[in-house]
Amino acid sequence: MRQFLKLLFRNQLAAFGAVVLGFILVLALLVPVLPLQDPDVTATGDRFLRPFSEGHLLGTDHLGRDLLSRLLWGTRLSLAVGIAAAVIAATIGSAIGIIAGYFGGRTDNLIMRGVDMLMAFPYILLALAIVAALGPGLMNALIAVAAVNIPFFARNIRGVTVSLAGREFIDAARLAGMGHVRIILTEILPNVLPIIVIAMSTTVGWMILETAGLSFLGLGSQPPQADLGSMLGEARDAMITAPHTSIVPGVMIFLIVMSVNLLGDGVRDALDPRLKSGALSRPQAKTLVERKGAVPPATDDLLSIQDLETQFHVGKRVYRAVNKVSLSVKPGECLGVIGESGSGKSVTALSVMGLVASPPGVIAGGAVRLEGEDLLDVSYEKLRQKRGEKVAYIFQDPLATLHPLYRVGDQLAEAIQCHHKVSDAKARERALELLKAVRIPNAESRLKNYPHEMSGGMRQRVGIAMAMANDPDVIIADEPTTALDVTVQAQILALLDDLRRERGLAIIFITHDFGVVAQLCDRVAVMYAGRIVEQGPTNAVLDAPAHPYTKRLIACVPELGGGRRELAAIPGLPPVVDKLPEGCAFAPRCQKAREECQKGEIGLEGAAPRKVRCLYPEEAV
Amino acid sequence: MTVALKITDLAKTFSLGKPLFRPALPGVRAVRPMSFQVEEGETLGIVGESGCGKSTLARMLVGLLEPSVGSIEIAGKALDNADPAVFGKQIQYVFQDPISSLNPRKTIRQIMETPLKRLYGMDKAQRQERISEIFASVNLREEFLDRYPHEFSGGQAQRIGIARALAAAPRIIVLDEPVSALDVSVQAQVLNLLADLRTEFNLTYLFISHDLAVVEAVSDRVVVLYFGSVVEIGQAEHIFNAPKHPYTKLLAESAPVVGRPLTAPEQKDSELPDPLNPPPGCAFAGRCPRATELCRTDTPALRQMGEDQLAACHHPIEG
User: Fold this and answer.
1) pLDDT tops 90 at residue B208
2) Domain count across chain A
3) Separation in Å, CA of B319 to nearest CA in chain A
């Protein structure tokens, strides 16, 4: 709650709205105790007194009634009716939405078609019809305004509920013996409440306006009772001769609606999880580079990552996701990077082409060199030309990386035309070639497929074809087979292996699977808590792991053919990278750790090509 | 040995609805009629690739989905109504995604208390006592009880999920990919915990996974599913070493293993058959190197092949 208020008031407009609205609300609440004149006493002799006249601060209206008193009583009434209408509409609308969304199927269909019918009428017509049927009066106007706004809530809340009803915790609640009513009240409602509040905060102002509109037409409050709408309506005739009678309620309506809307937008921004996650703050086109210290000199590798430090700055915390990582590949070589989630392997990969989102990502040190050129130093335009052309990526989930609304053939052609000025026909021809190269059967007809028409394995092949589109020198594959079935995984791995042998591609293959690394990679680097703890030729590392972490991680993976057994486990959890312990990050989980393991910097040492970051390695390297 | 769970001809067809001007579509047969039984204290592994009907089967077993035909018997008693509250005390479910199976707006205590309150009607003191017992068994600290799900790592959240399933004191727990969202070092912790709990509470497990090595390591017997049907059942230690069904063999050979050279066991276009337009005969025939004309017309039945092993194949692998 405190965090919500902090977020809310950081938005200055929302704070301004809150102050104005708060002032008006306090005034409205205090009206009965304020020393005001009776709002309904007429004194025709004093009609149309100007503001600041004796005894009438804001003047009088056409019947000589005190405007200030009528304004405050009217504001009180308008606010009460508007808020009541919002609460009624929110309650009924949300109830309808939750029921429709939770039960789904026929219930949903019936309810929502009914709501659609309600929405088919222009709202003012509908409100007029309701008031006409019920007769004029403030209560009926309230009912009309509430009824007109029910569909808005019903549709909004239904959408949210549908996505919640399919979530696993709802199933879990059913298995725990909860009935439908209880699930709706205790599992679903708390989760949709923020959305209801957001929807309400953005519609209250609108409803106050609608109520005023009905009163203005004479269908709301009846004389002599004052509300803002009827005050405006009565002042209409004297608009030219006594403008203050319409300006006074007009300004009040303006102030209320504006402050409600400003505050409502602020509430929405502070509460909406989608906005909180940074959807509104678009990341920069390239990762922010703020290097301290010297840039390492060039090497003769094809791609070399040198002492790379990538950090995430969130508030005051600094997450050291990648901490002085050095990796390199030569043409035709496959380097495996293995690690658990949070070890920094993906961030390392994304840093290469400046794809880490900034904010909050910052590259704080090191260099990434492609054929000797420092990619962290080049302009965005130059970097963009190299993305896909020199270094291409294959990601884990091809469904998320392919655009769902374009045919795969067009997406491939676009990837080619981004970098080469070729005709559409040429690009299509090349796209077909690529699909054939990744062994997609019936490539010609597949060009016209949309991503959702393909299976996971086929989509990943398209992902690979896309990466190959511009004959890159390096492919960075980030868990490309994790989402696939084993039989499909085997095909994709074989395909990647063939491609690199045929075309001399360098591959950086990121995975958590030792089996995959063993089959595909020449060399492997093991990462833990943002650092490389061991590297060397794949067979050497897997046969005789030197770092205790590597050794125990390999032991954790069950291998087929071992039969039923107790598995080795590593107790504890990896450290959070904003509070890294001194010394070896693995020491708290390591059985061999001694006192000196938790002191000072431990270097990555050993005779090339093997290296290990450990004071007491399992094997001397 | 007593039978803990027996399913007979259990099947689920999802109807596709009737188009306005055309005859009704036949529907997708997610699970074709299957029968098997699980003995008390046993762990039955269920493996198969995506789309083979594993999760549909699991949801039917715990009553979240009503079967189209067939029956489920738990400890000799038929459960014919899909009421999760009736199922809940007998059979519980551990979900794949540990975080999304916990309501983000409830504390762990509220989550843990629900089954105790709803299924057993315990009062506050009894609930506290029972929660302490369960938390001790799954190695969780009681101070976690007043926190919210987002404060936990995947491994801890999965333990909470297991603790919730245990709170209902079921005889059987269906574990639907319980470790596939976890890192390997944590995965082993959870698998070992599950093994300990099984002996401690005399539980029967149905362990669903796509990871053959994990299934083999924890199961007594294994059921292999393909396209909604059981293609092979056998002892865990034999089924992948000496598979009878060519599909089981393909699965076993596809899993990447340290020290085996990289070969794709099948090179040709191999995709699951289209569920909207299922092929006649054996569903695997299109991918099978041993397939003959017979396979493309006749659906093979599950037959005994050797000791404790059943396979549905016209041309099983000898040996």
Assistant:
1) yes
2) 2
3) 17
> DSSP assignment of A292-310, as one string?
-SPPPPP-SSSEEEEEEEE
- Could A552 and B270 be called an inter-chain contact, meaning their C-beta atoms sit closer than 8 Å? no
Q: If we measure between CA atoms, which residue out of A208, A288, A293 comes closest to residue A256? A: A208
Contact call for A562 and B213, based on CB within 8 A: yes
Answer with the one of A436, A454, A471 that is the final residue of a domain. Answer: A471
A405 and A266 fall within a common domain: no
- What is the C-alpha separation between A257 and A209, in angstroms, rounded? 7
Work out the percent of chain B whose per-residue pLDDT is above 90: 45
* Bridge partners of residue A510, in order along the sequence: A337, A478
Give the whole-angstrom CA distance, residue A279 versus residue A213: 36
Pair A263, A134 in one domain? yes
CA distance A147 to A161: 21
Residue A557 gets which letter from DSSP?
S
User: Domains in chain B, start-ordered, CATH in brackets?
Assistant: 1-10+49-219 (3.40.50.300), 243-319 (no CATH)
Residue range(s) defining the domain that contains residue A424: 391-471
Dist CA A544 CA A521 (whole Å): 16
pLDDT attached to residue A432: 92
Domain of residue A104, CATH code = 1.10.3720.10
Q: Measured between CB atoms, which of A455, A516, A565 is closest to B271? A: A455
Is the CB of B227 inside 8 Å of chain A's CB atoms? no
3-class DSSP string for A255-292:
HHHHHHHHHHHHHHHHHCHHHHHHHCCCCCCCCEECCC
Choose the mutation target among A1, A175, A559, A564 for the interface with B, i.e. most B CBs under 10 Å. A175
Whether residue A246 is found in the same domain as residue A97: yes
* Backbone dihedral angles phi then psi of residue A20, each to the nearest 5 degrees: -60, -50
**pLDDT score of A278 more than 60:** no
Which of the four pLDDT bands, split at 50, 70 and 90, describes residue A279? low
Cα angle A375-A377-A378, degrees, rounded to a multiple of 5: 70
Q: What is the DSSP letter of A387?
A: B
The answer to whether position A125 is within a domain reads yes
Please name the amino acid found at residue B117: K
Asked if the Cβ–Cβ distance from A564 to B236 is below 8 Å, we say yes
A55 burial level (CB within 10 Å; 0-12, 13-18, 19+): exposed
Of A244, A279, A314, the last residue of a domain is A279
User: CA-CA distance, B171 to A521, in Å (whole number)?
Assistant: 45
For A578-618, how does the pLDDT look when each residue is reduced to its tens digit (9 = 90+)?
888 888 999 988 988 888 898 888 888 888 889 999 999 98
Name the token pair of A27.
């005034």
Cα Rg, chain A, nearest whole Å: 34
In a domain, A442, yes or no: yes
Given a cut of 60, whether residue A374 has pLDDT beyond it is yes
Residue A105 Ramachandran class (φ > 0 left, ψ -120 to 50 alpha, else beta): left
For the segment A20-68, what is each residue's pLDDT rounded down to a tens digit? Answer: 999 999 999 999 998 888 888 888 888 888 888 888 888 888 888 889 9
Q: Which helix (H) or strand (E) holds B93?
A: strand B91-94
Q: Which of B92, B164, B213 sits opposite A559 (nearest CB)?
A: B213
What percent of chain B shows pLDDT beyond 70?
Answer: 92
Contact A552 B106 (CB under 8 A): no
Contact B183, A341 (CB under 8 A): yes
**A252 occurs within a structural domain:** yes
User: Within a domain: residue A274?
Assistant: yes
Across the interface, which of B217, B267, B269 has its CB nearest the CB of A567?
Answer: B217
CA distance A358 to A580: 22
A240: closest CA of chain B, how far (Å) = 57
B79 near A CB under 8 A: no
End-to-end CA distance of chain B: 29
